[in-house]
């Protein structure tokens, strides 16, 4: 399913409620989405992993019964549910569910992933793997490798954002560099985006979906509920079917190769020269830092001078503002440069000529 769509350059679209709540609710979603030509799968959670106990934890096997009966009315519609334990897999297989996904909390747990992989081995169901909540591409890749190790080959990765202290205005920080890193490491792996769990609020969903398509993601998994305000889980982030279909019609996909025009070549050469200048400037900056380290050594001063660093950072931020550069980008960049400067100064003091002093 996922591999074939990627090969055929067909966008993968998955939509449906966060949780299956009643047969009527699923029926209503299926009816609203049945005319959508791009629809690959309807999603709905049967077992819901909740942060606190006591909330709505899904209707379990009952949801699979509803799906089977709705599939008889909509024979072309395919459904996906989340599995977190081997008995979920066994039930999903028994009810003929078409695809499964592994949620963020489960994907981050290597023991759970091994158990699920064992339960899935021998089945040829398409499986989606959400990114674990911690921003660590290796943990995400490890979850996928555990499935591949038991022979599962129709796998898609789903980017749903990360738990960080500075996610606002989103529910989960997108940290786009992590799925981009996954893409670099596994270029043939289909990559989907779940803008709903990144956004946490319906009005932010379309712009996140568009960013994913701009970055070359192969598809989207979107939470769609016939009456979002009545949803038992994730009420704020679910789109109505009408809003979902409008969003789909407004998204633009960029799949054409970049033209290799003369103008493009000139611009790329300009970038190459600028990058080379940046590297030379950095090398020069760290040479100066090494020189400063020897002076600090002579005067027995600490390598880390917080006041000097604060003054420097404020100057850089003021200049960045004047140049129209993004302030948080410049702050992150300077934090990194400063850490490296301290490391370079320490290494300088460790060299034999200095450590003997
Ligand atoms: C979900 O898709 O409903 C869900 C629980 O997602 P996640 O595992 O990304 O939190
Ligand atoms: Mn949800």
CATH superfamily of the largest domain: Aldolase class I
CATH class of the largest domain: Alpha Beta
User: Under CATH, the topology of the largest domain is which?
Assistant: TIM Barrel
The total strand number stands at 8
Please tell me what the overall shape is: elongated
Number of helices: 15
The low-confidence parts are none
Report the span from N to C terminus.
67 Å
Order of helices and strands: HEHEHEHEHHEHEHEHHEHHHHH
Oligomeric form: single chain
Largest sheet: 8 strands, parallel, barrel
The strand order across the widest sheet is 1-2-3-4-5-6-7-8
The percentage helix is 40-55%
Global mean pLDDT: 94
CATH architecture of the largest domain: Alpha-Beta Barrel
Give the distinct bound molecules.
phosphoenolpyruvate, manganese (II) ion
- Assign the structural class, choosing from mainly alpha, mainly beta, alpha/beta, alpha+beta, or little secondary structure: alpha/beta
How would you describe this protein?
- By secondary structure, this protein is of the alpha/beta class.
- The protein has helices at 2-7, 23-33, 61-73, 86-94, 104-107, 110-120, 137-149, 177-185, 195-199, 205-214, 241-250, 262-298, 306-322, 327-350, 352-355; strands spanning 12-16, 39-43, 79-82, 99-102, 127-130, 155-159, 191-193, 219-223.
- Strands 1-2-3-4-5-6-7-8 form an 8-stranded parallel beta barrel, surrounded by 4 helices.
- Strand 3 (79-82), helix 4 (86-94) and strand 4 form a beta-alpha-beta unit.
- Helix 2 packs parallel to helix 3 and helix 13 (306-322) packs antiparallel against helix 14 (327-350).
- The longest helix has 37 residues, at 262-298.
- The mean pLDDT is 94.
- It binds phosphoenolpyruvate and manganese (II) ion.
- Manganese (II) ion binds at residues 18, 197, 223, 233-234.
């Amino acid at each position: 399913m996922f591999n074939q769509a990627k090969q055929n350059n067909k966008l993968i679209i998955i939509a449906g409620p966060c949780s299956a709540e009643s047969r009527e609710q699923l029926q209503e979603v299926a009816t609203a989405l049945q005319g959508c030509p791009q629809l690959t799968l309807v999603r709905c959670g049967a077992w819901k992993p909740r942060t606190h106990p006591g909330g709505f934890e899904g209707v379990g096997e009952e949801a699979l019964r509803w799906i089977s009966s709705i599939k008889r009315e909509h024979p072309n519609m395919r459904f996906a549910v989340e599995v977190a334990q081997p008995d979920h897999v066994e039930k999903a297989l028994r009810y003929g569910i078409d695809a499964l996904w592994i949620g963020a909390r489960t994907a981050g747990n290597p023991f759970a992933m091994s158990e699920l992989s064992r339960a899935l081995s021998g089945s040829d169901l398409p499986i989606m793997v959400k990114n674990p909540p911690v921003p660590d591409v290796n943990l995400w890749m490890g979850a996928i490798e555990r499935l591949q190790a038991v022979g599962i080959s129709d796998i898609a990765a789903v980017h749903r954002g990360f738990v960080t202290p500075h996610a606002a205005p989103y529910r989960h920080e997108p940290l786009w560099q992590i799925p981009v890193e996954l893409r670099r490491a596994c270029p043939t792996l289909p990559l989907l985006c779940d803008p709903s769990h990144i956004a946490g609020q319906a009005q932010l969903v379309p712009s996140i979906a568009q960013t994913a398509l701009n970055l070359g993601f192969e598809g989207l998994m979107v939470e769609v509920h016939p009456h979002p305000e009545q949803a038992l889980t994730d009420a704020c982030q679910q789109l109505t079917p009408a809003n979902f279909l409008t969003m789909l019609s407004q998204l633009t996909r960029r799949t054409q190769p970049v033209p290799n025009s003369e103008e493009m070549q000139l611009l790329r050469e300009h970038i190459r020269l600028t990058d080379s200048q940046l590297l030379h400037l950095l090398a020069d900056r760290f040479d100066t830092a090494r020189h400063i380290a020897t002076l600090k050594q002579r005067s027995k001063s600490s390598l880390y001078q917080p006041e000097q660093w604060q003054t420097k950072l404020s100057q850089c931020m003021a200049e960045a503002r004047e140049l129209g550069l993004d302030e948080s980008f410049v702050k992150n960049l300077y934090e990194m440069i400063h850490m490296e400067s301290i490391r370079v100064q320490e290494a300088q003091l460790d060299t034999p000529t200095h450590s003997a002093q």
